[in-house]
Amino acid sequence: MDAAKSEQRPASSLSSSSAASDPLSKKESRQGRPSYAGSDRNHLRGQSTRSATDRTSLAIHGEPDHDYEQIGAITAGHELDVELENAYDRQVLERIESRSSVAYRLTQALSAVSRADKQTTEKDGQKTKWAETLPLSDLDDGVVGWESDEDPMHPWNFDPTKKWVLVACVSGVTFLTTFTSSILSPAVATVDRQFGNTSTIISSLVVSVYLLGYVLGPLFIAPLSEIYGRLPVLLTANVMFCCWLLGCALAPNMSALIVFRFLTGVGGAGCMTLGGSIMGDLFRAEQRGLAMGIWNLGPLVGPTIGPLTGGFIVENIGWRWDFWICLIVAVAFIGTLQIFNVETNARVIMQRKVDRLSKELNRSDLRSCYSNGAVLSGSRILFNSLVRPVKMLFLSPMILSLSMYIAFVYGVMYLLFTTIPGVFEVTYGFNVGLTGLVYLALGISNVVGWLVVAIYSDKSVISLTKANGGKFEPEMRLAITPFFGLCLPITFFWYGWTAQYKVHWMSPIMSLMPFGFGMMGLFLPITTYLVDAYPMYAASALAANVVARSLVGAMLPLAGPTLYANLNYGWGNSVLGFISIAMVPVPLLITKFGKRMRTSQKFQL
């Protein structure tokens, strides 16, 4: 049938003698290089051709095709010789991509060969296959895609300097928003005195309510970024963050402070929610570990450095300056981010290309290479996007189990924060400034854990990929997590019993370090796994994770006073230690069964 269709095509479209009417007719450009104009769009829309896959296969393997039998006659002309010689020139490719011609088909065939080569990279003499290639354009079938795997418009192919500057800016804002979440911790007693508060629940809530903002924010930020792009949504969230910081600094009473802290958390959820997906937008899987490691420093180091800084601020210039200083730094950081920020969502970039080509070519049949062909109303698309994070959290066993694990770790981190002032100010007689230094133990161990993961994560993945016959699986990210998971119970048993028996103050400080080290070794691989496993909906997968951990992080500290009042520091922390031991096998189970569940139709979202 394909051969018959080929024979029905007008010979004029394949004849070099009809250059005057041929869509590939040449005009001399200003640079002295050939350019092409006069495309017959009606012929392009009405033409019936075989699929791009068939054409590529025929071109590569040399099977008979009526069009390709005539290539010799065509290439005898100077015009097509010049065009083929410039096939790798982006300007020429962009001009001929919409032309239904033999040259276009041959270019597609060459692109297929290039993609096959790019799928395989040499590492230590063994071929390692990364199953990430870009969907290409096939305008004959109405599909708009990328020009090649090296298309500079795709975020993977951005200039490396541009990518790493963006990583630094996003990571800086992420650090600041999480830093703000805990900076008020050392000032709670001062705030209580100023506003006449005597409730321990309210005292805990003024700190943890910020995390409730992290629960609400991602439910809107993530899906909206998958529809409208990362750039406008992130800018809106960051502006909200700055506005509500101003409200915190000027809060006239405890109720207003709690409300403004909550709204600040909603805005601050921007980089927390989108940072990981931006790293996935910018880097392929084999390059993603380091970028994710840098970004993840913010959510983990920020909350530990916040109380350290806040202690000295409240002691010297007052608690309101916690927010004034955060606001000043936020304006500087967010302004810098906005200067360098660009859209990184490949689906949004491609949809904009579809819209542009539809107007330029007057074709309403064009669709994105990421489209599944379904025609949905705008309201339906928005609804599906808004419910996707919730569906992923409750209907995906991988996301649910890993999010619950991370939520527990995040929650007990904030629970530990609430115990540090009581332990070191009451038991050991530290002042507010010195108590803030205790948090430095967590910060230092976070950095050490980050260095270990950053160095060994990608190496471990590459090694496992080679052992798997050169095929990468996202579950390989989780291979190193059990070792780090075992560090958490060490802290709970050590810290709890040394604090209860009033061992020298250095011992409970040192006991915090295994927790910081282990927490980093869990956060980095798990968040990177979510990006690898759900590349198209990474923002929603990470939003589900952020919602779960923020909700537990906000609520668990409220149970702290009752827990320690009944069980004291020893058994209270031992309970947390036993729970953390029970959760160590979770990543192991995902490593073993994750691929099966991820590819099962039952769990498709």
CATH top level assignment of the largest domain? Mainly Alpha
> What is the overall shape?
globular
The amount of beta strand, in percent, is under 5%
- Runs with pLDDT <50, length 5+? 1-131
The count of β-strands is 6
DSSP summary: helix tally: 25
Task: Decide which structural class fits the backbone.
Answer: mainly alpha
Cα gyration radius (Å): 29 Å
Strand order of the largest sheet: 1-2
GO cellular component, one term: membrane
Domain Major facilitator superfamily (MFS) profile: 166-600
Transmembrane segments: 164-189, 201-221, 233-252, 258-278, 290-309, 321-342, 393-417, 437-457, 478-497, 509-531, 538-559, 571-590
Membrane topology: Multi-pass membrane protein
Protein architecture, described:
- This protein is mainly α and 605 residues long.
- It folds into two domains: 2-119 and 135-144, no CATH class; 155-344 and 376-603, Growth Hormone, Chain: A (Up-down Bundle), CATH 1.20.1250.20.
- It contains 25 helices and six strands.
- The chain has helices at 2-8, 41-46, 52-61, 66-69, 71-75, 78-85, 90-96, 102-118, 160-182, 188-195, 200-228, 230-249, 254-282, 288-316, 320-340, 346-361, 378-395, 397-427, 432-467, 481-485, 487-500, 506-511, 513-533, 538-583, 585-599; strands at residues 26-28, 34-36, 120-123, 126-129, 143-144, 367-368.
- A two-stranded antiparallel sheet has the order 1-2.
- The model is unreliable at 1-131 (pLDDT under 50).
- Residues 1-56 are annotated as: Disordered.
- InterPro entries: MFS (IPR011701), MFS_dom (IPR020846), MFS_trans_sf (IPR036259).
